[in-house]
């Protein structure tokens, strides 16, 4: 399980300042929790990671693509910015301390960055479902990471669906 994506040298500018972006993320997470993971036509989840520097839980809304019954793909596009999003670095530091929420479904997942053929295959799936990601790729000189999130334990699935994890 290697996380090897480096930042680029060019790309789109990220909108807003930190305070505004944090406010927007909190508002969007509230919408996602109320709508079962839908934001308009976009499927999105709440991704909770452990901060690589702080060690504190960090949550952010992220678009996702289903990759089988117990796996999801997320893309560290940052809308084509030159740098990977902060959540990517958190996942890279703690790939086994990741949780997702899709509506009332709360799932502990293991994160794996895809490489080579697996990444190319997943990228085609992403582009077919959401062509805007192809535009993000054109804006930056970095390879945009694709991360597979896989349910860590099928045994706890019923408790996870109810959000009753300990």
UniProtKB/TrEMBL annotation:
GO cellular component: plasma membrane
Pfam families: F420H2_quin_red
Gene3D superfamilies from the UniProt entry: Electron Transport, Fmn-binding Protein, Chain A
InterPro entries: F420H2_quin_Rdtase, Split_barrel_FMN-bd
Top-level taxon: Bacteria
Catalysed conversion reaction: oxidized coenzyme F420-(gamma-L-Glu)(n) + a quinol + H(+) = reduced coenzyme F420-(gamma-L-Glu)(n) + a quinone
Example GO molecular function: coenzyme F420 binding
NCBIfam families in the cross-refs: hi_GC_TIGR00026 (TIGR00026)
Family listed: Belongs to the F420H(2)-dependent quinone reductase family.
Name under which the protein is recorded: Nitroreductase
């Amino acid at each position: 399980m290697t996380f090897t994506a480096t930042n680029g040298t060019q790309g789109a500018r990220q909108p807003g300042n930190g305070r505004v972006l944090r406010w927007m993320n909190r508002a969007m997470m509230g919408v996602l929790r109320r709508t079962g993971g839908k934001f308009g036509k976009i499927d999105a989840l709440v991704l909770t990671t452990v901060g690589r520097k702080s060690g504190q839980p960090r949550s952010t809304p992220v678009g996702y693509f289903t990759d089988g019954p117990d796996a999801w793909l997320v893309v560290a596009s940052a809308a084509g910015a030159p740098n990977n999003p902060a959540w990517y670095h958190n996942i890279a530091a703690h790939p086994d301390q990741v949780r997702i929420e899709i509506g009332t479904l709360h799932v502990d997942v293991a994160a794996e960055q895809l490489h080579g053929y697996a990444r190319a295959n997943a990228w085609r799936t992403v582009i077919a479902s959401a062509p805007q990601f192809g535009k993000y790729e054109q804006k930056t000189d970095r390879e945009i990471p694709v991360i597979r999130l896989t349910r860590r334990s099928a045994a706890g699935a019923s408790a996870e669906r109810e959000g009753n994890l300990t």
